[in-house]
Amino acid sequence: MTLKVSFNIAAMRALSLTTFTGVAAMLTACGAGTGTAQYSMDANGNITSASATTKFANGLTQTASLSSSSVTTGSATTATGVTSTITNPPATSTATSTTSGTSSSTGGTGSTFGTVSTSTSAGTTATGTAPGTATSSTTATTTPQPFGQTGKFTAAFSEEFNGTALDTTKWNDRIWYEAGNATKNYAVSNGSLKIWPQRDATGKFFNRTIDTDGKYYQTYGFFEIEAKLPIGKGTWPAFWLFNHIGTRRPEIDIMEAYAGGGPNSGWSDANFHPTAYAATIWIDAGKLGGTKTMVTSDLSAAFHKYALKWEAGLQTFYFDGKPVYSKAVSMPDPMYLMLDLWYGSASGQPDNTTPTGIGNSFEVNYVRAWKI
What was the pLDDT predicted at 143? Predict the structure, then answer.
């Protein structure tokens, strides 16, 4: 990452404490923690070099160094072309920083000690400001961890849907035994994948599957999506792991919902909004390993995280970071990832009351997998 700033040296000479504190803010604006900065100045009062170390709340350390060249314009000298190369911990943050501290300076060298507080969110650009007119903007590479989990996880697969089309190097848009439907009922836009109920050219509703069959498989690990579910009769969204190995069909359903069930089914309310979902393990086709239904709030009203920790001999399912179901079953086969919007089963059949179009989507913000 490269960070560039400019500041007025005349103001620095008059307000050394404020400016040197600003340097500390500049060098630590990439993340929350405690920062220490050292700097050197030439005979004209220009900062010629500086270095800083930031220790983050999670124990990781960020180091930075910078050098500058000076030019004179009018009666003031401005240091420009200030560039720092920063080694960041694996995170991306949005930061607005404030700094307090003390400064000492002897013979053109000095040290500043400050505490920087930031607010963070993943996947965006950060801006930090402090007195002394030093500003910075940063972008760092993020390596997110499973929501609500502690321990060691190694990122293995990530799809953030940041583009404008489905990445066909990762995904197929049909299941392996079907030709697929030419009617488009999915899109990647505004940071999410959307799959919605739609009738095709014959007037019929049709299934849509997005999967990594033939492109990505994994055995054991942690698997997570963040999604908002559709409403209406017939809708059957799901996130699952699957494989077709000869005649065998191992399967782990991390989330299946049936909004069309209605209030007497336990799956939805009177308006056919999903209020429950199921997690199910199939050792093979027709051979049930375990299942549980989780009663929830309206799953179409907000995004939620659905996850699985798949270990040798144990599967643990999570909802918004909290364990909701665990089953000791051996599932040793590699499987691929699947997202789909199908119809039927406990949701019944779609009809003219089923909302169609992108406004009623199975919307997925991300799909992530880690090795454990």
Answer: 77
